[in-house]
From TrEMBL:
Pathway: Cofactor biosynthesis; (R)-pantothenate biosynthesis; (R)-pantoate from 3-methyl-2-oxobutanoate: step 2/2. PANTHER family: 2-DEHYDROPANTOATE 2-REDUCTASE, PROBABLE 2-DEHYDROPANTOATE 2-REDUCTASE. Its EC number is 1.1.1.169. Catalyzes the NADPH-dependent reduction of ketopantoate into pantoic acid. One of its GO terms (molecular function) is 2-dehydropantoate 2-reductase activity. GO terms for biological process: pantothenate biosynthetic process. InterPro entries: 6-PGluconate_DH-like_C_sf, 6PGD_dom2, ApbA, KPA_reductase, KPR-Related, KPR_N, NAD(P)-bd_dom_sf. NCBIfam families: apbA_panE. This is 2-dehydropantoate 2-reductase. Pfam families: ApbA (PF02558), ApbA_C (PF08546). Belongs to the ketopantoate reductase family. SUPFAM superfamilies: 6-phosphogluconate dehydrogenase C-terminal domain-like, NAD(P)-binding Rossmann-fold domains.
Length: 310
């Protein structure tokens, strides 16, 4: 199977590295000094589960050099999907599977605006990993897992084939009964902590120590639940309770990646998190005042960060 990993950051680098280590043909799209280091020395993964190093079949920043893939794993940010999808059109075959693993509730919907459903899967992942230095990925916490499925949740032949690939690569994986529910459960957590983290610029433990901010997180989560229910996603109060158990389990100093991007003046996933809630709530007639307040307060900084890309 020909595998293309587009974006070799913490997610794409770790999972792409595991697949390459298992002997699959893996091509990687990377940029800048990170790409140069991979081309020169290979990709190093320092992991709490054991370190390893791989040499991908190809590392490049030019899609035209890449063999037409059977599987594309998207290791980019959610806001990058529309542009990357357009770039991928030149290499996608009739039976290519495209698997988005980034945070966000509507990643597969973005892909469906460019590709037919036969090319698109839904997915998410759990892993704490990042580029430590060019050519090196550090996996520092959590057992890395991938959840994936058909958009209509049927157990298709290609889902079984993909599960076999992940199993052979030593990647813990799940094909849940309802992949949309799993996506929204993670979205509920990450959106609840990310925007408030960007505003306060302190770690999750400091936010939960404040009665006012803790109540703000609860209101944020409840608005997300109400929107999910309006979209026929069966998020329950029990799911919200589980999110707050997760919030309480986060060690001191923990911050979300979107929060770190905001604090560092980088383009972030704000529009795909709190901004998505605001947009969809307005469309469906759902009240979301707390998410809107967070979004509007952070939006000017996001606008400035996006100008750096022009």
């Amino acid at each position: 199977m020909e595998v293309l990993v587009y974006g070799v950051g913490g997610v794409g680098g770790y999972f792409g590295g595991k697949i390459a280590k298992a002997g699959y043909n893996v091509s990687m799209i990377a940029r800048g000094e990170h790409l140069k280091a991979i081309q020169r020395d290979g990709l190093e993964i320092e992991s709490i589960n054991g370190d390893f190093k791989i040499n991908p079949k190809l590392a490049t920043d030019d899609l035209q050099e890449v063999p037409k893939p059977d599987l594309v794993i998207l290791g980019i940010k959610s806001w990058q999907i529309p542009q990357v999808a357009q770039e991928l059109k030149s290499v996608i075959k009739d039976n290519t599977m495209i698997l988005p693993l980034q945070n966000g509730a509507d990643n597969f919907e973005k892909l469906l605006k460019v590709f037919p459903e036969k090319n698109v899967l839904a997915g998410l992942c759990f892993v704490v990993s990042y580029i430590e230095t060019p050519g090196k990925i550090k996996h520092s916490a959590f057992e890395p897992t991938i959840s994936f499925g058909e958009i209509d949740n049927r157990l298709s032949k290609r889902i079984k084939e993909l599960k076999a690939l992940f199993d052979a690569s030593g990647i813990k994986n799940f094909n849940p009964e309802n992949i949309q529910l799993e996506i929204w459960k993670k979205f509920l957590f990450i959106t609840t902590v990310s925007g408030i983290g960007g505003l306060t610029r302190v770690s999750i433990d400091k936010i939960r120590e404040s009665d006012y901010l803790y109540k703000m997180m609860q209101d944020t989560a409840n608005e997300i639940k109400e929107l999910a229910n309006a979209k026929n996603i069966p998020i329950t109060r029990e799911h919200v309770k589980q999110v707050f158990k997760t919030i309480h389990s986060q060690p001191a100093g923990t911050t979300a990646s979107t929060q770190r991007d905001i604090m560092n003046g980088k383009p972030s996933e704000l529009d795909n998190f709190n901004g998505y809630i605001v947009k969809e709530a307005a469309r469906l007639g759902v009240d979301a005042p707390v998410n809107r307040s967070i979004y509007e307060c952070l939006k000017p900084m996001e606008t400035l960060a996006r100008k750096s890309l022009e």
